[in-house]
Amino acid sequence: MPHVEVRSRRVGGATFQIPMQIRPDRKVSMAMKWLIGYARKRNEKSMAQKLATEIIAASKEEGAAVKKKMDTHRMAEANKAFSHFRFLINTMSRDLKIYKKHRYCRSHRCW
Predict the structure, then answer these.
(1) Cβ–Cβ < 8 Å for 85, 9
(2) I need a labelling partner for 83 at 20 to 30 A (CA). Which of 17, 25, 77, 92 fits?
(3) Backbone dihedral region of 71: left (phi > 0), alpha (psi from -120 to 50 degrees) or beta?
């Protein structure tokens, strides 16, 4: 199961891939999607055989689903330098909402 993923965030006109932690329920659903998706692409006769082969390959740390997990972790590791934008974005969006809410407020001082 993957532990981190990268999400695209737009900051100052540039788009950054920001690594973020994955919730436990999302970890399971992503792993299942990858296993089923890559099992469908296999060449065995039945879906049961395809899925069984992919699960066995995953238990041996082989197969396409495990490769996808490794690629995701590698991408998150490569973009670790941008992880501080995760907190910056939340602060900026909160301040922008406050500004929009009080922009036309002239009867009293909101700031």
Answers:
(1) yes
(2) 25
(3) alpha
